[in-house]
Amino acid sequence: MYLCFNCGKELAVEQHVGFRDECPHCGRPLHVCLNCSFYSPGAYNDCKESSAERVLTKDRENRCEYFKFKSDTSNTASDKAKTYKLAEQLFKK
Question: Per-residue pLDDT tens for 59-89?
Fold first, then answer.
């Protein structure tokens, strides 16, 4: 599942996000650092990809060739409940 950094709505993103692609919900650009899996606040240039060029404005479209749309890895409440139940069963005395 992919989410827009700006509005947080789910996106139907194919394999490649173009430099000028926009969110269909809010119209903000999608090819931005805040949507990238390499974005890491605190890392050098806030990016885990050491070969990437510096991008100053993280919420504006850029031409970074290393861009890879990050997927939302947060679990839903249902998934968390299942995980908790399995953990309880596993560690039950």
Answer: 999 999 999 999 876 555 555 566 666 667 7
Burial 47-61 (b: 16+ CB within 10 A, else e): bebeebeebeebeeb
Tokens matching residue 24: 């269909």
Task: Please count the structural domains in the chain.
Answer: 1
DSSP 91: T
Question: Which structural domain range is residue 48 located in?
Answer: 1-93
Residue 8's pLDDT band, with cuts at 50, 70 and 90, is very high
Helix (H) or strand (E) holding 87: helix 77-90
